[in-house]
Specification:
With 256 residues, this protein is an alpha/beta fold. The chain is 34% helix and 23% strand. It has a domain of 80 residues. Strands 1-2-3-4-5-6 form a six-stranded mixed beta sheet, with helices on one face. Strand 11 and strand 12 form a beta hairpin. Helix 5 runs antiparallel to helix 6. The protein binds zinc ion (ZN).
């Protein structure tokens, strides 16, 4: 249950914009700023005043709209301390493992290096909602651009340890490509097969596949299933550690 209204929409080609607003206090946050014009249109349509802008990482398709939105709304911009030189207009920098308050709700900032070294995600602890940026996707995980596979594995483990009924919003709509990869390594898995069909239908109808839940991901996302004997067997890594299985899955997806 949440007192917040969450409004999600596609920006650029496959980025997600997401606005979280509280009608009682009039506070509204945007998670990342992929496209100022699109975000502004949605704010105007919903008659919302942007008060907070939370940035997960420094990539251009997540920060492009900061300048415009800061100038227009004078919102507070929060983002990772270690990427502050690459992210404009940061008012508050975050290192992970701290809490920020949004409209009376505690948000846990979790450090998830791997995709970039400074990447952070935002977990609304009371509402059990995670904004995962480019760390976790529906049936997938972010590419490891800056960190090591081990760092990404530790980051993914932190997400896997969240409450099972956590609702997860992600930075991109990559569901169909991720589902194709998942079915290629799990051709006989009924949960994955059903989900693949569901995603194909949603995409053909131009519907968003997100948000997802941790419970669903635990059953269908190979990057969270590193301790599954079926996956270990399929990858020829029956005696390998969870990290080695995760790493092999990431490498195979990179080359898929
Ligand atoms: Zn990114």
């Amino acid at each position: 249950m949440t007192k917040f209204e969450i409004h999600q929409f596609i920006c650029r080609t496959d980025n997600y914009g997401v606005l979280v607003s509280d009608a009682d206090t009039g506070l509204t946050m945007s998670v990342d700023a992929p496209d100022a014009k699109r975000i502004d249109e949605e704010l105007e349509k919903k008659k919302l005043n942007l008060t907070h802008l939370l940035i997960t990482h420094k990539h251009q398709d997540h920060i492009d709209g900061i300048e415009y939105l800061k100038n227009k709304y004078n919102c507070i911009v929060l983002g990772p301390e270690s990427e502050k030189d690459q992210i404009p207009h940061l008012d508050i920098t975050l290192i992970g493992d701290e809490y920020i308050d949004f409209s009376g709700s505690p948000i846990r900032v979790i450090e998830t290096p791997g995709h970039t070294l400074g990447h952070i995600v935002f977990f609304f602890e009371r509402e059990k909602i995670l904004f995962a940026g480019d760390t976790l996707f529906l049936m997938g995980c972010g590419r490891v651009f800056e960190g090591t596979h081990e760092q990404m594995f530790e980051s993914i483990k932190k997400i896997r340890d969240l409450p099972i009924d956590t609702v997860i919003y992600c930075g991109h709509e990559y569901s169909l490509a991720n589902a194709k990869f998942a079915i290629s390594i799990y051709p006989d898995n009924e949960n994955i097969g059903n989900r693949y069909e569901h995603i194909q239908k949603a995409v053909s109808e131009k519907k968003c596949c997100l948000p997802t839940t941790l419970e669903r991901e635990l059953r269908t996302n190979p990057f969270l299933m590193y301790d599954d004997p079926v996956l270990k067997n399929k990858l020829g890594k029956i005696k390998s550690t969870d990290l080695e299985v995760f790493s092999e899955t990431r490498t195979q997806k990179d080359n898929f």
